[in-house]
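Hi P.,

Sorry for the delay on this. The queue was packed all week, but I finally got your sequence through. Input first:
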Amino acid sequence: MRSPDSPKTPAIFFITFRGDTFRILTELLNTTLKKLLAANPQLKEPFPANTRIRIPTTQPNSPRSLEKPRKSIVKIKQTEKAPAIIRLGRSLLGTRYRFGAGPYPRSRRFDCSSYLQYILVKTESCYQRTSGQQAIVGKRINQRDVEAGDILFFRRPRYSDNRIGHCGVDIGNGQMLNTYQSPPGVTITRWRDPYWLSRYITAREVL
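Then the structure:
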């Protein structure tokens, strides 16, 4: 039994994709099925997209917590806001794109920065409208340290002065929520590929 003075381990959560399975989750989250079910006893396959999964954690000062951790391909911030941002962002998948879109939902359209603004304002994380303004909010982080919930900025070929021309929010596993020409509108894109990495400018931590 935990003593009253024992520190609590912060809960960390992951938001599922459509088609996720126990096998996929155990590989992504670097855990075992037994531990995953112990942390989420209500979980049964098939589970729908946008299901919030508690990631099993190790208690502080336990023998296992002193071991060198294995590398995981998914990192998620220890905050309630990251899952909320991802869940809201994914609920808007397929929303059509329009450059310079007006306020949503009245406009029924997003451009990349208005989409980012909408999902961040809802979680009180960022209020700026343009990608240039958003790129100076929060804390600058190295590309290798990007986690789910961080915002990403890229240049676009149409700008000769290398200015920021596109943005999105990381959702883990090298993917981001973003929007561009319709179709696809709001979509999930793999940003850790040659096309986007060659256009990468910076990432910001706003949570």
